Amino acid sequence: MPGSAKTMTVATVGGLVLVTAYTVALGSNGWLWFSWVVLGLLTVGVVVARS
């Protein structure tokens, strides 16, 4: 996996951890989850394009 794809993957996993922690601490926020889904789809696109 090239460097950019690995960085995107780390950012996506880190984002999931942060959004989950926010949800547990303060309650669900739909925009945060939507943003995380968009980031996840972009990451999948980068990984597929680099493969």
UniProtKB/TrEMBL annotation:
Alphabetized, the UniProt keywords read: Membrane, Transmembrane, Transmembrane helix
Q: Which domain of life is it from?
A: Bacteria
Span-the-membrane segments of this chain are 7-25, 31-49
Keyword check for Membrane: yes
Name it: Integral membrane protein
The organism encoding this protein is Streptomyces mordarskii
